């Protein structure tokens, strides 16, 4: 069992940056693979970034829409996963969710159904 709490969302100007944080409870955080999802009104919830457990150095995934602009990272000592978002665009406006699943080696999952635990979401709004 793990509980997730996102923070760091808000209103930012186009071209600006935000860093989202996802703080996890429990003693087994390092055994969980993590993902960041976002959902805009009327659209599906899509995976934009994911990171495996740290086995053999770990592995990261990025959706094409955010590749080169967003960076996912984890700090197991702090039980926290981050999403650094740069060069933000109004199309990035959405509710952002942190999610966790039991990790297996360096595997990556991008489907929402693969993740067992979810945070409450944090709103990111990018203005012109």
Dominant shape: globular
Query: Which regions contain 5 or more consecutive residues with pLDDT less than 50?
Result: none
Q: Which percent band covers the strand fraction?
A: over 45%
Oligomer: single chain
Mean of residue pLDDT values: 96
Radius of gyration, whole Å: 14 Å
Largest sheet composition = 7 strands, mixed
Number of strands: 11
Number of helices: 0
Structural class assignment? mainly beta
User: Cα distance, first to last residue?
Assistant: 40 Å
Helix content: under 10%
SSE arrangement, N to C: EEEEEEEEEEE
Descriptive report:
- With about 130 residues, the chain is mainly β.
- It is about 0% helix and about 50% strand.
- The strands form 2 sheets. Strands 2, 4, 5, 6, 9, 10 and 11 form a 7-stranded mixed sheet that branches.
- The mean pLDDT is about 95.
In short:
With 128 residues, the chain is mainly β. It has strands spanning 4-7, 10-13, 18-24, 32-39, 46-51, 60-62, 70-75, 80-85, 94-102, 117-118, 122-127.
Write the layout of secondary structure elements.
Blueprint: E1 4-7, E2 10-13, E3 18-24, E4 32-39, E5 46-51, E6 60-62, E7 70-75, E8 80-85, E9 94-102, E10 117-118, E11 122-127
Parallel strand pairs: 2-11
Antiparallel strand pairs: 1-3, 3-8, 4-5, 4-9, 5-6, 7-8, 9-10, 9-11
